[in-house]
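Lab notebook page, bench 4
Experiment: in silico fold of construct C2
Operator: M.H.
Input chain length: 343 residues
Purpose: comparison with the prior construct
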Amino acid sequence: MIKKYALNKISVATLCLILLLMFYFIPTNNNIETTVDENNNKLKENVVYLLDEDNYVSRITTFYDEKDITEDIKKKIDILINGNDDINKFYPLIPKETKINNVKVEKDSVYIDFSKEILNVNKYLEESMIESIVYTLTEINGLNKIYITIEGEKLTKLPNSNKEIDYPLTRSIGINKEYNLTSFDNIDKTTVFFLKDNEDTTYFVPVTKISNIEAEKIDIIIEELKSPINSQNNLNGYISDNLELVSFNKDNNKIDLVFNNYIFTDNKILESVEYVISKSIFENYDVDEINFSSEENKNIDTIKKDDDIDLNNVSNNINIKNEKETKTEDKIEDKKTNNYYTN
C-alpha cells in the first residue's frame, strides 16, 4: 500500500514537472506582453508654458510619472526653471538659480515660495514669467488660484517695472496680451488659442485680446482665428475667411454652434479647426461640452472639456491649404480697422 502511494506521488510530481517545463519553453503571447508593458509605462501628460522662438508663452506638453499633487507642482516648476531635454527650442522663464523653498496646496489654491533669485528675471520677461507660472499650475485640474512669496514675503510688485500684482493670481490675468483700446471704459479680455509649428512639434499659443469693443466673446474668437494678421505672426486658426457663425446657443454646461458650410474642408471638419475653436471657448466660457453643426448637418461632432487632444494627428493635416493663404493686402488693411467686431 505504501509502495503504491509512493509511486502515485512520484507520478504526480513527474507530471507537474513536465507541465512546468512546457510552460517555460513554449513562447508566451506577444500581444499580452505588450499590453502589460504599456500599462506599466503609461505616463501622465504634463502641460507647461514656455517661451517659443517668437517670444510667445506657449502651451507645451511633456510626460512624466504621476505622483501626488505637490510633487506634480514641483516637477512643473522645475521645467519652468531648467527646461526639459525633450523640448527643443522652448525656453524657461524663471531664472536658473531660483530654488523652490516650499509648496502648499489648500483646496483650489497653490502657495509657492521661491528663493530671491527669481527677482533676477529679465525686465522684458517679468510679466511673461508670471503668466507662465499661473497658466502652468492652473492646468492641474481643480487648481485655480496662485499665491507667490519670496523667502516668505508676498510678491506684491513685479521686480523691474514695480507693476502691482493682485491676488489671487488666476488665468484672468491673461497671457501674451494684445491691446486694442479706444478708452478705459468697458475693458474686456478674450483669450484665443492658436496653433503653431516648431519643426515636428505642433502646439497651442494662447493670446489674450484686451479691448473695449462690445461683442460676444465667441464672435471675437472666430474673427481672430480667421484674421490674416495673426497668420502673418505664425498664429494659425486654419479657418476659412468665408466661415460664418450662423447661431450660438449656451444652455447650462453646453454650447451649440451652427456654422455655414465653410466649416468643412474636403467634406469634413479638420481637427485643427475643432481644437482651436473648442480650446478658446473652454477658456472663456464655463461649459463642459461643445456641439458642432452646419446649416445642413446637425450634430456633426461634439468636443468635451476633458477630451484628450492629440496634436500629433493635427500635425499630419496642418499643411492643408485654405483660402486664408491667398488673402490680399487690402483685406489685411481692412482687418486692421477692427470693424469686424461691430454688429
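Observations: Residues 1-10, 23-41, 320-343 have pLDDT under 50 and may be disordered. Residues 44-173 form one domain.
Next step: discuss at group meeting.
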